[in-house]
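Two entries, shown back to back:
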Amino acid sequence: MKEFIEIKGAKTHNLKNISLKIPKNKFCVITGLSGSGKSSLAFDTIYAEGQRKYVESLSAYARQFLNLMDKPDVELIEGLSPAISIEQKSISHNPRSTVGTITEIYDYLRILYARLGNAQCPTHHTILKAQSTKEIIEEIFKLPEESKIQVLAPIVRNKKGEYKLLLENLARDGFTRIRIDGENYELSDPPELNKNQKHNIELTVDRLKLRHDDKTRIRLADAIEVSVKKSNGTVSIISMDNAFEPMIFSTQYSCPICGYSIKELEPRNFSFNNPNGACPTCSGLGVLEDFDPNLFINSEDLSLEDGAIIGWGPTSTFNYSLIESVCKHFNIPMNVPYKDLTDEQKIFCFMEMAK
């Protein structure tokens, strides 16, 4: 292992054929007058070459998430490991921003988690493994005989677009039915989709009555193979009469005990700025805002018309008229003590305050 990063013939921007050695495993600082080439050496030469080496170790899919720099104008750099850079930036006021997102370190961590992480079943904590077509069929055959099922290929998941060309191509391929946002349509007459809204599109590969015989098994195997091909490895089974909950299988990741399955891990699964990775409770913000109704009560012995709620009594003409309208609409008595109101009546009052 080399002890130095050796740079020869650096000519990027203000650098005039500079050659130098920088010790490794040391905290090094580059100083100089304004315009002397500090940034050209640190970012546009050393970091640019280190980033190029780093990106070469990634898959083509992962590379699309990184902004690549131009190849530096330098004769030779030896002893340089793959590198990342933390640039000086102004503070972001985005509530989802953290030190990791501002410095862009989190972009690399998401790729690291997606490529080296082991997906586990949340119930059995087993490493998720790929399911074969045979294993998927055996899981489906656990359903009651004569169950009416649809075999679906999830093609679009929670993405914006009109998808006119996609639907036309599917119809041209001989398919007749499609399921969009939970509704079934004929491909000969698909709905117009709002390009600014996110959609889920599932291709109906087959509809059949489940019989535990070889003929059904062969037909189901063919449908699963088509679904896997169209959806890059995912198969969805739903009941035509709502007899069971939808079943999702993957030829990539699945729990061998309970059949819990997910798609291949992607960087967006680890992003709190993306619906696929954000907490569904706080939407990725990390905090929940709420209020305590008890802090707004003068006295539970008072009635609404006597000013039980702070700021909503007769002395506040506008607010009082609002609470009066709400009580009239929902048939809430205003002349009884607040403590005698039902929980539902109290909720209606505070819903108006929340507006």
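entry 2 starts here
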Amino acid sequence: MNLSENIQLAFKAVRSNWLRAILTLMIIAFGIMALVGILTAIDVGINSLSSNLSYLGANTFDIDPKGEDGIHGNQGGRQAKRGGPITYDQAVEFKERYDFPARASVSLMCTGTATFKYQDKKTNPNQFIFGIDENYLEAKGFDIEMGRNFLPKEALQGGYITIIGHEVLNDLFDGKPEAALDKYIYAGKIKLKVVGVLKSKGSSMNQSEDRRILIPLQMAKRYYGTPNTSYNLLVAVDDPTQIDMGVEFATGLLRNVRKLKASEENDFEISKSDSLIGLIRENTLYFRIAAVAIALITLVGAAIGLMNIMLVSVTERTREIGICKAIGATRRSIMVQFLSEAVLICQMGGIVGILLGVGAGNLVAILTNGSFIFPWAWVTIAVITCTLVGLVSGLYPALKASRLDPIESLRYE
């Protein structure tokens, strides 16, 4: 018998015991669903996070103080200085002296519990206020839908003006940018004139990027700055291939700005956006291993159940096997027939598991506003795994069937 005939016989055998076959393939399906679903969810999460971090781009890096002010550590037998906040003067000096083909931005996260008002409308009390300079929007990947960005003079000298996010626009102006321009809104008791509206950017790590307003940096310093406030530094290099040179230049300059001695450790940390994503990918390795372990445990149980069912099937079809041998069927053809049946059940379960797993995994895309992905790599692994499970669990029953004596089999009742 050729392969197509074996597959047809396998389908016939599955149909004759469809309930038993369905129960078996569902066990396999749940194992494959665990494998494909968890791995897909991890990939969707990473892709969503990568997209949400894309505003940092592959050509950007940010600078943060290391540790908290006044904290010191011991490293290699000598005291290692831990950084205090990056002050306003340090941040501005760094920006002015950063003589590299790049754009340095200084910003300040003022609050995340603000409420904005316009006439009789107001937002929920969970809005963000950021103080920014003229380079912030380009470095962060924000686009202006209508209006304009802050001028350098406005950013450094202050002014009662603001750029609003798309969610604020929806709450206060019914989503109409033209209705918002040149209008005055209140952030607490501060009256601000709307000079720009941001395009919608969606969510980042379950936090809306549109639920914010932007004010000039000097104004943010005046109302929200303290002596212990740390300002954010973000650098966008013009040529992504020169980002490492840009990091080295920034390191030397900031050490000079913060007046660190040659013997002292850096009291700040520089993080590239692509390294953040790489770190996340590395840390998800344990989740992948756990997903594979869960799936393998389920599939081992499914393989044992399938082997038991195949042994029962061999016993039930002993007389049929005897007839096949009597009319010329070889041991090889009998073995291939039963192996085909085991693999077929596994592949049917695998298909169901793949569909369930892809759907379950992409629920993460819905929750994080990410994009749907079809994990071809994990699907391929699932198909190969199903084939191996079918071969392993069906091998012994197939060998047992092929070794039956035709005369004894014909006498079997």
